[in-house]
Design brief:
Layout lengths: L6 H22 L17 H15 L8 H16 L5 E8 L4 E12 L8 E6 L9 H20 L6 E6 L7 H7 L9 E7 L3 E10 L2 H11 L4 E2 L1 H8 L6 H5 L6 E8 L16 H19 L11 E6 L3 E6 H25 L4 H8 L1 H18 L15 H49 L5 H15 L4 H30 L4 H12 L3 H5 L3 H24 L9 E10 L4 E8 L6 H5 L20 E5 L7 E11 L2 E10 L5 E6 L4 E7 L2 E2 L5 H6 L4 E6 L6 E8 L4 E10 L3 H9 L4 E2 L6 E10 L3
Parallel strand pairs: 2-19, 3-4, 3-5, 5-8, 6-7, 11-22, 11-23
Antiparallel strand pairs: 1-2, 2-4, 6-8, 9-10, 11-12, 12-13, 14-15, 15-20, 16-19, 16-21, 17-18, 17-20, 21-23
Helix pairs in contact: 1-15, 2-3, 2-4, 2-9, 4-9, 6-9, 10-13, 10-14, 11-13, 12-13, 12-16, 12-18, 13-14, 13-16, 13-18, 14-15, 15-16
The structure holds zinc ion.
Length: 759
């Protein structure tokens, strides 16, 4: 070899490898076209499912939250559909409290599709309630339609064992229906569970969570493939996020389980735009056929004898599933490190690298990951948005491209700053050792994610050993980068849809690790060329982040969210209109609709995280919530209260809020104890203890509580009804065209403070 290699040739080769991996992994995440209504009877057809979904949404006539009249219409419709299929649906009514301490009467629907033989059935689950803000065509109307279409397909081509359909209620208020199901005698039967959800209106269906022995579950997923997008990394990552679906509650069944969801178009999640026109029929098809395949696969297994054992698994371009035990992950990671060390020794003996060069190379992986994470964080910060208020923007392309450019710049950075000392062979050795070490650490601590560094780490020693033959080594570098790309880039693609702009550090780091094995290609270039190779994507990242900052964060398809409340403080006789926007400021038309305050503040101590602007309003001539105390006593540092809580204006939801610092030992509605709050729920409510009863009868509900407190204490009671009085409705109307409501929707809220002073 004489002279320096051509920088253009090297960069073009590196870019081609990366582009191929990016394109292949990106294409694998495309949704299939919907199957037509005349598809074979045993198959899943999104067009058939859509017909049922449209009829269900028409029966609902809009949002259909738990304990509402629309919710009952949906239940009646679904009961009719199941009966029309020839099934015998049962309604299981219960009073249940979900995880957020919201309690409601729920009615779950169950129906059994007979299988060909005996054995424990498979439970297929979707929830039929929606949030109050939107019709829930995707969340979880799509899941309900998938259950109906799957039932039809399973009746046409029976599964090996029975499949029990569970259409549950009250998921959106903290999994109340799923919690109620746990107390049902049917809950003892299932040998496996498949849950179908949506956290958006489009995108591919992801098998993002598993329960039970992952070795067995991965085997069933492998048997159900191809087409399934599944990985133990998703499940590990999801486990670290504060999200819930019905499967969170159904984990208590202690059976193998799989959770499917699509997460594209998350802007529309829990808004009025989660409607049929925004639901991607391709997503419905992908999720429906994935669910049906999984159900058939679970039903074909002996669910009475599930072997233990944990596994690591990931799909390769949605075509095949690679799986191995976590024990093998540890062995392979250790072997990769050992093989890298042996290869390093060989290279040192051959004189192709020095110990100092390898030591410098060992800094490459941590440097690239740190630089990518930092860059991705700054790119996301450039938006000036808080991920809590608004995770997703209307035009994410510049932002996603900025994350990609950050990752590429970070991958080129080690060659720029260490390449002169490490040279290609030192860099290659350092990267191989770094990947092996990362795989070993993950195999021990978070095995589900270990395959990401492990896939390139097992090939990297071959590249190190080839260092004495540069042409071969370069080909091996490309192979290592391809393995890294296939393992890591699907996660990089999905990071933004999953988390919004807060995903910047993780997305950029995934790209950096995928591209880093190509860095030895840059190491032999001149210092100037190496710096340029890192600086060019770095500058592109800055330009893209600025472009992302300049783009409108919301538009008609990804609207701004402004939730409007009418609040009346009964004690003070004062009323106000509150408007809580997710972009930090009010749209001009909304601001002009009332005399809004200049700044936003958190309106209730227990109101959670969202600040609101407030405008004075005329108090309504209506009575609010009333707590008639029937028994109040204090003893031993405890205050015991029994009474009846009712809304004197007929609001369907009543609430008790106990201030921070007062421990609630027990609380019950109509004799049903409300479970303890989880730490994160307490955070949502500003550390107040909030107990809500939805669908309360006019006569009110019996409340019993024991507070750990020495002296007198003041609690707050509230009642809440959907919709707004005329003054508030005018503000909501002014929002039309520029913003939409979200989550719990626009509500009217009356509050009172009750001093509890026992004698
Ligand atoms: Zn849902």
């Amino acid at each position: 070899m004489t002279g320096r290699p051509s920088p253009a040739g090297r960069l073009a080769a590196a870019a081609a490898v990366l582009a191929a991996a990016l394109a292949a992994t990106g294409l694998a995440l495309r949704v299939p076209p919907p199957r037509p209504a005349d598809a074979p009877a045993g198959e899943f057809s999104a067009r058939r499912a859509e017909v049922r979904l449209a009829a269900m949404l028409a029966a609902a006539g809009g949002p259909h939250p738990v304990a509402s009249a629309a919710n009952r219409r949906v239940r009646d419709f679904l009961q009719g559909e199941l009966a029309a299929l020839g099934l015998a649906p049962e309604v299981r009514e219960a009073f249940a409290c979900g995880r957020y301490r919201f309690c409601a009467p729920v009615a779950n629907l169950v129906a059994r599709v007979p299988g060909r033989g005996p054995g424990r059935p498979v439970l297929l689950v979707a929830h039929y309630d929606s949030v109050p803000a939107g019709p829930g065509a995707a969340d979880d109307g799509s899941g309900v339609a998938i259950l109906l279409e799957s039932a039809r397909a399973l009746l046409a081509d029976p599964p090996a064992r029975d499949v029990v359909l569970l259409l549950d209620d009250g998921e959106e208020v903290g999994l109340a229906g799923a919690e109620a199901f746990l107390g049902d005698r049917l809950a003892r039967e299932p040998g496996a569970v498949v849950n179908v959800e949506a956290r958006g209106t489009g995108g591919p269906s992801l098998l993002f969570e598993t329960t039970g022995p992952t070795g067995f579950v991965a085997g069933r997923i492998g048997a159900a493939a191809p087409g399934l997008l599944a990985s133990s990394l998703f499940s590990t990552f999801y486990g670290l996020l504060p999200n819930d679906t019905d499967l969170t509650a159904l984990r208590a069944l202690s059976v193998p389980g799989a959770n499917l969801a699509f997460i594209g178009g998350a802007c529309r999640y829990h808004t009025p735009l989660d409607d049929l026109s925004h639901l991607d029929a391709g997503s419905l098809q992908h999720q429906g056929e994935s669910a049906l395949r999984l159900v058939r696969s679970f039903a074909a297994a002996d669910l009475g004898r599930v072997p233990p054992g944990e596994a690591v698994f990931f799909d390769v371009l949605g075509l095949a599933l690679v799986r191995f035990s976590t024990a093998w992950a540890r062995v392979l990671a250790f072997a990769a490190v050992a093989a890298s060390l042996l290869a390093c020794r060989r290279v040192l003996r051959g004189g192709a690298a020095t110990v100092g060069g390898m030591a410098a190379g060992a800094a490459a992986l941590p440097l690239a990951v740190a630089a990518a994470a930092g860059g991705g964080y700054l790119a996301a910060r450039a938006l000036g948005l808080s991920a809590v208020q608004r995770p997703w923007v209307a035009h994410p392309l510049p932002l996603e491209a900025a994350f990609l450019a950050c990752g590429l710049a970070a991958a080129a950075l080690p060659a720029a700053v260490l390449g002169g000392r490490a040279r290609a062979a030192g860099l290659r050795a350092g990267v191989a050792l770094g990947l092996g070490a990362a795989a070993s650490a993950l195999a021990a601590a978070l095995p589900g994610g270990s395959y990401a560094p492990l896939a390139p780490a097992v090939l990297a020693p071959l590249a190190v050993a080839a260092s004495t033959r540069p042409a071969l080594a370069r080909a091996a570098d490309a192979a290592v980068a391809l393995a890294a790309g296939l393992a890591l880039l699907p996660a990089a693609w999905l990071m933004y849809p999953a988390m919004g702009h807060a995903a910047g550090p993780l997305a950029a780091a995934a790209v950096a690790v995928a591209a880093l094995p190509l860095s030895p290609l840059l190491a032999e270039l001149s210092a100037r060329a190496r710096i340029a190779a890192a600086a060019a994507p770095g500058l592109a990242a800055v330009a893209l982040a600025l472009a992302a900052r300049g783009a409108e964060p919301a538009d008609a398809g990804c609207p701004e969210r402004v939730v409007v409340y009418f609040h009346q403080d009964v004690d003070a006789g004062r009323a106000r209109i509150l408007a809580s926007p997710d972009l930090g400021r009010l749209p001009p038309a909304v601001r002009a609709a009332a005399a809004f305050s200049a700044g936003a503040t958190v309106p209730f101590g227990w109101g959670g995280l969202r600040p609101a602007y407030e405008a004075p309003a005329r108090a309504l001539d209506l009575a609010g919530p009333e707590l008639s105390v029937e028994e109040l006593s204090a003893a031993g540092g405890r205050l015991r209260l029994r009474g009846r809580l009712a809304s004197r204006r007929g609001a369907p939801s009543v609430q008790v809020a106990v201030p921070p610092g007062v421990a609630v030992e027990s609380f019950s509605f109509d004799g049903t104890p409300v479970p303890r709050a989880e730490a994160r729920t307490a955070r949502w409510f500003g550390r107040w203890s909030v107990f809500r009863r939805l669908g309360a009868p006019e006569a009110g509900v019996e409340v019993e509580m024991v507070l750990r407190v020495d002296g007198p204490v003041s609690i707050e009671v509230a009642d809440e009804s959907p919709g707004l009085p005329p003054e508030g409705a005018a503000v909501a109307e002014a929002r039309r065209g520029s913003a939409v409501t979200a989550q719990e929707g626009d509500v009217t809220l009356f509050t009172r403070t009750i001093a509890l002073a026992p004698h």
